[in-house]
Amino acid sequence: MSEKADILIVGGSAAGIAAAISSRRYYPESKIVVIRKNEKVMIPCGIPYIFGTLGEIDKNLIPDVVLTGKNIDLIIDEVTTIDKENKNVETLQGKKFEYDKLILATGSLPLEPPIPGCDLENAYVVKKEAPYLKKMQDSLNQAHDVVIIGGGFIGLEFADECKKKGIKNVTVVELLPKCLLLACDEEICNRVENKLKEKHIEIINNRRVQAITGNGKVQAVELDNGDKIKADVVIAGIGVNPNVELAEKTGLKCDTKMGVKVDEFMRTSHKDIFAVGDCSEKKCHLSGLPSNIRLASIATSEARTAAGNLFGLRRRNTCAIGIFCTMIGDLGVGSAGMTERTARDMGLDIVTGEFVKANRHPGCIPGAEEIGVKLIFERDTMVLIGGQVFGGTSVGEIINFIGALLQHKTRAYEIATFQVGTHPMLTASPIAYQIVNAAENAMTSNHS
Amino acid sequence: MSEKADILIVGGSAAGIAAAISSRRYYPESKIVVIRKNEKVMIPCGIPYIFGTLGEIDKNLIPDVVLTGKNIDLIIDEVTTIDKENKNVETLQGKKFEYDKLILATGSLPLEPPIPGCDLENAYVVKKEAPYLKKMQDSLNQAHDVVIIGGGFIGLEFADECKKKGIKNVTVVELLPKCLLLACDEEICNRVENKLKEKHIEIINNRRVQAITGNGKVQAVELDNGDKIKADVVIAGIGVNPNVELAEKTGLKCDTKMGVKVDEFMRTSHKDIFAVGDCSEKKCHLSGLPSNIRLASIATSEARTAAGNLFGLRRRNTCAIGIFCTMIGDLGVGSAGMTERTARDMGLDIVTGEFVKANRHPGCIPGAEEIGVKLIFERDTMVLIGGQVFGGTSVGEIINFIGALLQHKTRAYEIATFQVGTHPMLTASPIAYQIVNAAENAMTSNHS
Fold it and tell me: How many independent structural domains does chain B possess?
């Protein structure tokens, strides 16, 4: 006997959960089933924080009640086959579920560096599975020398947390001239690197790791200039690949590197199957080009779009915008859309505007910190195509404000006369509000 | 001999300064002169914080270097007459300035309650003048019983600061059923009132002060039900009137209650004179109706609009949106646009959506606080017309994010699929981001 779900969701991380919650809001009476492989679900961007700030894997879980509390059935099992013509799935545990609509949210898999030694004990990539992370935690508990391959957000967060944990030597090896250079322009990367150095984290730029070496266990990494760095744990945070295995097996159109093919309503090549999150292909909101960016912010947006479209098309996917933020020590950094560097490399004619000021007014108010905003506009249209921010904890919301302006293709003159609420204890002054002033600086520099 | 300014700005508070800075950006070669009455300029919204947090008036000044550092001439003097036909002004100190374009930024004057006793010693309104505030500070330094008339933002901030200062009995008297009720809906007002009560601030709602009594000095206030409250200092924060005296004398079209008449380019009835900030008349962005809202956020936006238009029209005023935020104790509160109550009172058919969640994820991360968002949409169009937020210090930037969505007349379905950057240490999770979920809740409640 098989169970029948109106909506069946395969995968239970950020995209799967957001799809389920939105589906419940839209279809209060439907039977909604989520099937996921892992016993426990990690908060994906919380993983680095397990090792220092949180101290325990179990503190970084998405509680099942976000589903079960909304009358969504949660099954711990693995879907092995989808029969798309007869609209049913089979699982590893031999169960069968029929469905009316299916949402694939199978996520991504961490890339392993294409070098020897990745199979040594204490060489890790960043998987989202609790037992794997437990092993990693045990290794880090005894580590003195940690090498992190990749100076992107995850790599730097791991480095910061390893230091918080008290690990003596932490080294980040980054292929590009600066850490974070895919997300931020050089001046902001410099601020981040300075903060890492303050915390005695070693940064090696412009270098590729050629091998992880050791006798059974990790002992060192070897760089492309022949240098060797002592290591008892290596963590590679160099990106992910979409997990398209099940989709391919089902006969859905896929690109192994870019993901499951979807239309702007998030439908796959089969009309009753949608694909959302890290497993689906993306286009860049700003260039229209295929993009391999993978973020929970994009995943959950796609999930909500798919949920709205299940039984009648209502929402269009707005394509992927990279909106990131992080905290390195007490320095918050955020980026949205294109950097100045990416834009120029693409050949865009651009204008930038910057503004730095305290996040309180007067600046002598207790708790005041400097916040800086940089905005990037296309010269002819003065449409916003990117923004970056550094400062204290409010950068998380400031970058979302900038993200909203990007999604609206807002023009500099609109931003320059935006009305913004300000308060001595909460923001810069109305005269010196960073986003507004950065826009006006960009406008008037273009004008003269 | 008279001096000649290309741009002459009368008034040097938020609007005047923003107008001067924007003018300098637009016209790098112009001679720009600001004439202001006061020796020192207060940060207007910082005034309550002088008395507790800052401790000194001189810590709450806008430094003159924001002007002089940009090669803007600053004159401490008072413009007494404007000859608009011959384009010159005369000052109290007998100086004369010719101008090409003039910007009036004469601000507002605090309303005095229309009751007996306002002339008693230790009865204050909230003026922006340093010597007056010094006197107020001296009175508060010896006060045991302070009564504040008006439970709006300024009144409550004063109450909070008086407590921080250690004043024993602080009472707020508010005419409406709740404090902050013009800016927030009742459930948020309740949170604020509870926070005030936690701090042992007495709140008396639904009551009008009938008289301030005392023998030369304040001794009590009398309420409309006959109750008397002991007081050695009374502070009234009940609103402001535009300061149109100079504009009226100049023969510009004015409404004494609503301000100097301006077109959408911020021009007065004379083409070479602009008026911005608290002294100029306003229309509500959402209803199109005349509005007597007066905020620095509106003032600086108008100032930037006027500056852009001085020598050729380029920018239109987008009309006033109330975007407020404040901090009462450790509770941040923000509001933008219409409240549910105002909208219903106006006869609008609306839908609301709410969402409350921690501002970190997982919620057990150190420093996590609850943040709640309420959004208000017109039912038929699902256009956003208002939003409110409560929580920690990030409410200041969250309300600006909501303010930007308002200014763009954003629809619920767009907000529900917005991509928002999230980070464990900085925001709610992508699944539980408050603004997005509040929008989806509003949509789906309208849908079913």
Answer: 3
CB contact under 8 A, B25 and A62: no
Among residues A309, A341, A368, which one ends one of the domains? A309
> Band of the pLDDT at A1, cuts 50, 70, 90?
low
> At A339, which CATH number?
3.30.390.30
Measured CA to CA, the distance from residue A37 to residue B125 in angstroms comes to 65
Query: Looking at the predicted structure, is the pLDDT value of residue A448 above 60?
Result: no
Instruction: Tell me how far CA of residue A163 lies from CA of A52, A194, A326, B345, B386, in angstroms.
Output: 8, 15, 16, 57, 44
Contact B355, B373 (CB under 8 A): yes
Chains A and B: how many Cβ contacts under 8 Å? 270
Residues A228 and A247 occupy one common structural domain: no
The string of pLDDT tens digits covering residues A233-250 is 999 999 999 999 999 999
ipTM of the complex: 0.94
Selected residues 249-268 of chain A with any CB under 8 Å from a CB in chain B: none
Average pLDDT over residues B278-296: 94
Average pLDDT, integer, range A387-408: 95
Taking a contact as any Cβ pair under 8 Å apart, which residues of chain A between 20 and 59 contact chain B? 21-22, 25-26, 28, 43, 45-46, 49, 53-54, 59
Same domain, residue pair B267 and B231 = no
Output the pLDDT for position A426: 93
Interface contact A431-B25, CB threshold 8 A: no
Do B103 and B187 belong together in one domain?
no
The model's pLDDT over B85-105, given as tens digits with 9 standing for 90+, comes to: 999 999 999 999 999 999 999
* Residue A324 belongs to some domain of the structure: no
Instruction: Please determine, for residue B1, whether its predicted confidence score (pLDDT) is greater than 70.
Output: no
Q: Looking at the structure, do residues B255 and B218 belong to the same domain, yes or no? A: no
Interchain proximity A417–B320, CB inside 8 Å? no
Which domain, by its residues, includes B410?
330-447
Is some CB atom of chain B closer than 8 A to the CB atom of A417?
Answer: yes
Compute the distance between CA of residue B397 and CA of residue B389 in angstroms, rounded to an integer. 10
Q: Who among A21, A45, A419 is closest to B323 (CB)?
A: A419
Q: Which residues contact B405 (CB under 8 A, 6 or more apart)?
A: A404, B384, B387, B415, B435
Q: Are the beta carbons of A396 and B423 separated by less than 8 Å?
A: yes
Strand partners, A108: A242
- Does residue A96 share a domain with residue A122? no
Q: Which CATH number does the domain housing residue B46 bear? A: 3.50.50.60
At a CB cut-off of 8 Å and minimum separation 6, what does A347 contact? none
Contact of B148 with B155, CB cutoff 8 Å: yes
The answer to whether residue B14 neighbours chain A at the CB level (below 8 Å) is yes
Same domain (yes/no): A274, A388? no
| Chain A CB within 8 Å of residue B109 CB | no
Q: Does A311 touch chain B (CB under 8 A)?
A: no
Mean per-residue pLDDT of chain A: 96
Question: Over 50: is that where the pLDDT of B448 sits?
Answer: no
| Residue in A28, A66, A430 closest to B297 by CB | A430
d(CA A220, CA A116): 12
- Are A198 and A229 part of one and the same domain? yes
Q: B286 versus B252: which is more confidently predicted?
A: B252
Nearest C-alpha in B relative to A432: B18
